[in-house]
Amino acid sequence: MRWLIRDVILHNPHLFVYSYSDKGIIPFKHQFQTLYHAMLIRPVRLMIADEIGLGKTIQALLIAKYLDLRGEIKKALIVVPKVLREQWREEVKRILEEAPEIIDRGIEIERKLRRPRKYFIISIDLAKRYTKEITSQDWDLVIVDEVHNATLGTQRYEFLKELTKNKNLNVIFLSATPHRGNNKDYLARLRLLDPTLPEEISPTNEKKLYMRTRGTLVLRRTKKVVNELEGEVFKKCHFGAIVVDVSDEERKFFEELNRALFELVKDQADYSPLTLLAVIIRKRASSSYEAALKTLTRIVESSHRGRKEKAKGIEEYVEKIFRMGYEELEIEEFEEIDDAIHKIIDEYRGFLDERQLEKLKRVLELGKKIGNKDSKLEVISDIIAYHIRKGEKVIIFTEFRDTLEYILGKLPGILRERHGILLESDDIAKLHGGMKSEEIEREIKKFHERSDLLVSTDVASEGLNLHVASVVINYEAPWSPIKLEQRVGRIWRLNQRKETNAYTVFLATETDLDVLNNLYKKIMNIKEAIGSGPIIGKPIFKGDFENLWREDVEERNEEVSEYELILASIKGQLKGYAGALVRTLRILKQKVENAVPVNPAGSIKRELSLILEDTPDIEVLKGIVEKNVPNPFRLVRALLRENSKIEGIQVLVKGYNGSMDVYYVLFYDEEGREVYRYPILVENGRYFIGFNILRRISEVLTKEYKIVKGVSKGTDYKVRTLIMDRVYFPIIGRYMDYEKLSIKRDRLFKRIKVEIKKVLEIKGVSEGEFEIIKRVPVEIVKVLGLDFTNVELPTEEYIKALERNFVPLNKILESERKAMEIVMELEKTRGYNVEDVSLREHYDIRAFKDGEEKYIEVKGHYPMLFLAELTEKEYKFALKNEDKYWIYIVSNIAREPVIVKIYKPFSQDRKVFIVKNGEDVEVKVDIEVNKKARHVLKLG
User: Fold this and answer.
1) Residue 909's CB: how many other CB atoms inside 10 A?
2) How many domains does the chain have?
3) Residue 763 in contact with residue 701, Cβ under 8 Å?
4) What percent of the chain is helix, strand and coil (3-state, nearest 5)?
5) Are residues 189 and 68 in the same domain?
6) CA–CA gap between residue 654 and residue 642 (Å, rounded)
7) How far apart are the C-alpha atoms of 295 and 259, rounded to whole Å?
8) What pTM did the predictor assign?
9) Which UniProt keywords apply (predicted)?
10) 3-state DSSP call for residue 702?
11) Domain C-terminal end among 677, 700, 723
12) In what order do the strands lie in the sheet with 935-939?
């Protein structure tokens, strides 16, 4: 059963995923779909484009494990953002059960790549600097996480283009945001997966391409799809908007800041250096006082004051930093958005005149007077205390590293004074883009094991699994709802066991209330809910994240960016922009949905219809694998690592009234290499797949049975029809349709052909027949057509007595005498001269004719028994004279004598013949040789 267990589980995505249950992996149908596609198609060229939180990492590693177990991976590369290296290391160790090689320094690359490891992990920004060294390796699989960060025209993109250009390489891309609103950029990423696509594609052909890539190059599933497939997997996620009163000093600061920023922009073009500086100041001030004061200080205390250079790159900065899309920061050379903003300030602060600088100085002085009072941070401490006391972990997200450091510095004191919570700065976990790998690993471990609070920037959080927390606080209100979705996605994901909460905090200032009333309240389904949640004495606007966005906002024709929203806020013109924001999000969403269509739940169910079944019964699994094993999953995975194959066996079962055939449906590529095999059991017209094969066979084999070699020819044509209708055409056929696109310059996926092969027969036999089969090789039974009426079976007592040499001497002598007579007569009829030499040689009969000579050892048994026992001298003689040596076993002497002839009995190239109607018929039977005090040779 070991080989069958392996093939059933290895090639059934449901069972394969289930076999990792003890690794904390919960089987989900959308994961089965991904693995199923990777099993059936070569090469694996796939973008897993699921929403945040649907387990893309696990899906990629399960594919890697499958390919590895099939012997298709010797060396694999995993390319990730730097912040995710440690997370991937742990996941590789957990799922692949191997320690990967982490490459985190350029000087290590060549040395580490020579190490005998299977999996290597490197950050994309390190890898892009060593393209030649990395692409010169013979990779079998490349996995790229957060592939959307490799945008067209960047070093990252050029590196991946070189890395993936071999179209036979297995490549898996992961991204929750594969399309960022730019079709050209998205098509470039598709071209990385399929190098046979042309550089230029017309809009008409784009639409055709997008539809053909759904379920082929690209798999995209949403939380809604997963819930339709599984029932309610994702628990409720609650959204809250909280308004915080401010002190007089805080209010004066924001009022003066608003006046100063308005003066900066009122006579300026929308994309002038001063307007850009004003937008940046406003954005930083909405985050924290610390960020605002650092920005103002950098501007007004500059030694470059009065120095003006030609303004350049303004619209490029706006596009990359303030766009209303996914993953706003796209500038490769910066670790955090703070660095990009500092560069802009340094480039444009010389455009400010003395009067403008004086106004900003006054704002800076007012900011310094605020002192230790921070109303926003105080209310946030109330939220944190409320949830920590409920045993929940909390994440504070901020856009800026400056704000992160500010929070870490002030929050512990506020928590201690207001709530008596003793939480030092070192007790709070932190993540930001400038951290080293070992620091990231330490902070994530701290958050998982002992810390209740994490403060993180967006850059640092991208791709991280942070569902150990159930609360997110947006320290500043994101201008783009997309950022809210991404932040919430860090905790609202598979394996989240609690209901989650996401808070966004607004100050009771004119600017923040303007944003709340004219944007958030208009585009979101949120209602005022006084007195619920943390006791902060202020209204909380609450909503359900699954139904957060409103669709009934009046549309405007124009689209809008974050830059334009902030500028409108400075000018006091934010009213009416809700429609533009909704329209922008709709257009962006529509672009994404058109280019990356979601795989519907119904389509996924149809694809998986052949493999979906009940979860295996653990007790049955234990019984099949081994009795009383503490961890059957570990034992199953050990079986998966074996590489045994079976050509075909037959199992004869005593008293079973029926027959079973196990067929392998074999998938071969055009080069004749096996891609996939799928077992199907047919029993009396019923079909079983997956674990039900193992369950049904194990039920039948509770009876006594005997295993023999060889299966009968023939096939079940319904098996082929089943596979073609429910696997080949729905899945492989879709890939073949993709290849028919007229724009493609060549094929990417290999053609697949299907072959049906019977590998196992289980047949029931009567008790009488089974008693013969149990003692007589089946091959002999078949040749002679034996049945219970013409066979004298040995009793158990006879066999035991024979083995102990307790059979009465007269019976031995009588059977040997009759056997000698039968053999000598047989040889005479064939023209041999025969001589009885039993009294003087170490064998019984010398037969010779025409220069040919045979030395024959004769053994005789009254019952049907194929057993020959030799003394040590007889054994040595047989070895010395093997080219002439034969053993003749004459059995069933009491009924109809059966003669079996064995030539070279102790050699690997021995031959066995059965005498039928005076002729020799060669049979393939196993021979067991046991050495006791004598040499006992037994046909089995």
Assistant:
1) 7
2) 5
3) no
4) 45, 20, 35
5) yes
6) 30
7) 17
8) 0.81
9) ATP-binding, Helicase, Hydrolase, Nucleotide-binding
10) coil
11) 700
12) 867-870, 935-939, 927-931
